[in-house]
Amino acid sequence: MGAILVVEDDDKLRALVRSYLEAAGLSVLTAGTGAEAISIGQAGDLDLVVLDLGLPDIPGQEVARTLRATTAVPILVLTARSSDEDRVAGLELGVDDYVTKPFVPRELVLRVQAILRRTAATAGEEVQRFGDGGLCIDAARREVTVGGEVVHLTPTEWALLQALASHPGRVYSRAELINRTRGYEYEGYERTVDSHVKNLRRKLQQDPLAAPVIETVVGGGYRLGVRRDR
Ligand code: CA
What we know:
Helices cover 43% and strands 21% of the residues. It is α/β, with parallel strands linked by helices.
């Protein structure tokens, strides 16, 4: 199990968050600047980053973008602003959750634990099942089935689906999805992602009246509908 990185320039708040997370049995690293956060984040083995957006050197948004482009670590943002624009901007960064300041430390701990549970559940399973259409993703066999029938995907479609399925319910921006599929086919245009998603949807959706398994989030990007266990 890795550590939780707490990025916060306010010494008192950083110590407070650290003590609450440690009391919950988690191991904690801390950073007071964005540069420090990026270097610790890229060095690896983190389970989650708690990221303050208002940092002295680099904006937290920039830190999130950098971590997102180079790692798959979940990010929980601490923000002093609660307006809707900020919420959408946060979704575009592909963060996993938000806590608005001032917050109750116990609530932050609960949110952190919820994200950790979600990622542990996803990592531990070889076959993931989604939606009402009986979508199954078998990562080990690189096989996708819908209603028991094998669906043939292009390498780019497979990479997109894997990215979305790595954190079910999390919103991925188009830019992030381009990053994830770069090894296969990089054209750099967000519209390219839209057309791949359109093709994926067509292949994955047998019943056109069912809720789409890949959801569009306005101003955000795409996400895979939350998993149904059956
Ligand atoms: Ca701050």
